[in-house]
Amino acid sequence: MLISDGSVVYAEALWDHVTMDDQELGFKAGDVIEVVDATNKEWWWGRITDSEGWFPASFVRLRVNQDEPMDDYPTHLEDAQAGEENREGLGLFLGPGLPCKEQMRTNVINEIMSTERDYIKHLKDICEGYVKQCRKRTDMFTEEQLCTIFGNIEEIYRFQRKFLKGLEKNFNKEQPHLSEIGCCFLEHQTDFQIYSEYCNNHPNACIQISKLVKVNKYVFFFEACRLLQKMIDISLDGFLLTPVQKICKYPLQLAELLKYTNPQHRDYTDVEAALNAMKNVARLINERKRRLENIDKIAQWQSSIEDWEGEDVLSRSSDLIFSGELSKLSHPHARSQQRMFFLFDHQMVYCKKDLLRRDMLYYKSRMDMDCMIVIDVEDGKEKDFNISVKNAIKLRALAGDEIHLLCSKKPEQKQRWLRAFADERIQVQHDSETGFSLTDVQKKQALLNARKSHLAGKPKAVTRTYYDFLMRQKHPSLPSAVPRQQVFMLAEPKRKTSTFWHNIGRLTPFKK
Question: In the structure, what pLDDT confidence band is assigned to residue 164 with cuts at 50, 70 and 90?
C-alpha cells in the first residue's frame, strides 16, 4: 500500500499525459503530482494545484526525497537542470528538522544503484527466460520474428552489465554521498545510443506480440517462460517496455543528483556534464521516435493526393520540413503557376489545387533537393528569366540546366522558406552522421495502413495498437480510454511541439 498513514506522497511525471476526459488529470513531463489514492496499480488519483483526476501510474516515478517542501521543488529542479550558479543556496534550502543535503544525496545515490541492480536482473530474466527459450522453438518462431520482438535487448543487457560494474566501482558503500558516479555516465554516453534502435523497434515488437497471442499456444508458451524464470506476473509486452522507461529516467535521476551535490563536491562537474549528455541522448531518441511516428501521417497524406506518379515519398524521406503556397516559374516555359509545395528531407513535392474543391490536390512533380542549390534572389530584374521579381528564391540544379523560380507574397514568407531550405540540409546531414534511416518493414507498414485508410473512404487515426500495450487492464470505475500521450520523454519538461500537423492541417487535404 503506497499511502497508508495519511502522509503526502509526490510523484514526478515522466511523460506528458494529454487527455480530453474531465475525470483524468493532464500534465506535462516534469510536473510534480500529489498522489492522493494509489490503491489501483494501473490508475492513481492525483492533484496538481486545483485540479484532480485519474492518471496512469506508469507515467510517473515517485520522488526519492518525499520530505522536500513541495512549493519550492519545481524551482530548484529547474535551477539544477539549467546549471545556475547560485547552487550554494540549496544547502540551506532544507530547513530545520529535515534531512541534511548529504543525506538527500545519499538517498539519490542509493536509488540509482538499487534501480540499476534491479534493471540488470530484469534484463537477465528477459534474455534467459524468453529469448533463450524462444530460440529453441524454431517450429514456433523465425529469426526475423525474434528480431522484431526482442530487438537488440541482448546488446543492451551486455552494455548495462558493464555500466553497472563501473557504478559499483565508484560507489562508496560506507559513505554513499561521497560516491563519484558522474564519470560513469560520461564514459558510456555514446553507448547509450543503442537504446534508439530498441525504442524505435518497440512499436513493431508490440504489434508482432499482439498477432501471436491471438493463438493459444503462444499465450501458454510465454506464460510458461515467465513461470520457469520465476518472474513477476507481468505480460511479455510489459517486460519489454522497461528499457524504454529506463532510458527516460536517467535525466531525472541525474537532475536530482545534481541538485543535492555541492559545487565543491569532486563529482559535481561530472554530474553536471552527465546530465547534459543524457538529456542529449533522450533528445536523439525522441527525435527518431517522432520521425517514425510521422511516417504514417506522410503515407496518409500521399494517399490523399490525386494522380500520384513515381516513387513513394517514404522511399527517400521521413519528415515534412515545411509547406506552403508559392508562385513557380520554370524553364523552358516561364509562365507563373500557383502551386502547393511540400518540403521533405531530400525532396520537395509540389501539387495543384482543384479549381472547385480547394482542399483537393493533384500531384504535378517533385525536385531532388540533394541535387539543388538554393539562391536568395534580390528584388528586381532576374537575369535567367529576364523578368522583374519580388520575394523570390531560385533553385538551380548542380548539374544540367534545370532552374526554378519560386516567389512568395510577403518577404516574411520568403525568409521562412529560406530557413526551411537550410533546415532541410542540416537534417539530411544530421541523419547521415547519426545513421538514421527507415527500414523497409516500417515503410511497407505505413503504406499498407494508408491504403486501408484510403479504401475506407476517409483517413483514420494512426493505429493505437502500440499504446494499448501500455495500459491493458483497468477497473470498471477507472478511465477506459487509452491515454493520448507522448510515449518518449524529452529530457526537457518544456518540449517543442511538432510542426507536422500544423503544416499539414492548415492545408486540409485530409478532408476528402
Answer: very high
Q: CA 494 to CA 484: how far, in whole Å?
A: 17
Give pLDDT, residue 197.
Answer: 85
| Residue that is written with C-alpha cell 544503484 in the block | 113
Each residue's pLDDT tens digit, 482-501: 443 333 333 333 334 445 44
Cell of 371: 541535387
One-letter-per-residue 3-state SS of 172-222: CCCCHHHCCCHHHHHHCCCHHHHHHHHHHHHHHHHHHHHHHCCCHHHHHHH
- Burial pattern 212-243, b for ≥16 Cβ within 10 A else e, equals beeeeebeebbeebbeebebeeebbbebbbbb
What pTM was estimated for this model as a whole?
0.59
Q: How far apart are CA 285 and CA 288, in angstroms?
A: 5
Average pLDDT of span 464-471: 41
Q: Torsions phi, psi of 440, nearest 5?
A: -60, -35
Q: How far apart are CA 125 and CA 231, in angstroms?
A: 7
Under 8 Å between Cβ of 39 and 69:
no
Strand, helix or coil for residue 150: helix
Distances in Å between the alpha carbon of 240 and those of 54, 121, 141, 148, 154? 25, 13, 17, 12, 12
- Do the Cβ atoms of 131 and 154 come closer than 8 Å? yes
CA dist 54 and 22 (Å) reads 9
Which residue is it, cell 504514417?
296
Residue 51 CB contacts under 8 Å (≥ 6 apart), including other chains: 25, 26
At CA 78, angle to CA 73 and CA 81, rounded to 5? 125
Residue whose C-alpha is closest to residue 487's, from 469, 509, 511, 461: 469
